[in-house]
Amino acid sequence: MAGEIWAIGEIADGQPTRLARELATLAAGLAAESGRTARAVLVGPDASTAAESLAANGPDVLAVDADPGDRPVAAVIAEQVAALARDRQPSFLFVGASNDGRDVAGMLQALLDWGALVNAAGVRWQDEAPQAEMSVFGGRLVTLSHLAADHGIVIVRPSSVTAEEAARPGKVAAIAPAAVDPLPAVRIVERIAEASAAVSIEEAPVIVAGGRGVGGPEGFAVVQELAEVLGGVVGATRAVVDAGWIGYAHQIGQTGKTVKPALYVAAGISGAIQHKVGMQTSGTIIAINRDPDAPIGEFADLMVIGDLFEILPRVSAGVRARRGG
Fold first, then answer.
1. Which of 8, 51, 114, 216 has its CA 20 to 30 A from that of 236?
2. pTM over 0.85
3. pLDDT above 90 coverage of the chain, percent
């Protein structure tokens, strides 16, 4: 089993997340290139059920039905994956750059004493190891990096890979939770609940995003209206999040979420490289901007020159009219 490539997935509502499917697809592809074996690992109370679905993306799946109880999910995942890794000796672990995934990766680094490549936007097999493409200096440069050892962890940004079902699904093996010494408990001193969209921004098929051009918090009203009409969610640039116009959960870009909707509407967004890296893989990109020379016009599929406060309400009204309501 030495030399295996593992994708460490996450579970939401009893099913593997989209990012888990992307990692499974990535691991399967790299294994095919390198002649190695790919496996996916799921840890959680619904792991066995979720594993049946994840196996469709190719790798065999190790399912550990472990209930975290009142403990952080990331801690339980890290403990169980570390125990499996010590026993089965994989070479490379691929972890998603989600909130929990980053925690899992950090804990695995400490538990296994392995190095890590962080925030990979693309991965390929090169010289008997995964080569990670990462953006640096605010997205102005792209680097290609290898792990120095013959084992390690690669943290992969969401939407870096398109999840695909394999011609032949993998098999599922249920693994009993290992007896481990629990990681020290983290004392929670405060909880702050933040309202979020019914659909995760990473999973949304349609995103209507606003930038500095919306002018202020009240400017997001027309953005929200169009998002609701199209059955999508609201996104934003870092500048408006830093200004306090909208919450961080909506931030897209280098320091926010990476998204891949079928339709991305950018209203009042200049298209700086820091934002581009978070949404450039969207299916269709429509930009609305007063400035005909805005950088976003260089990669948008359709550029509409005009005032977003005139255009967005008309689009919303037009969509409602076509739907008869």
1. 8
2. no
3. 73
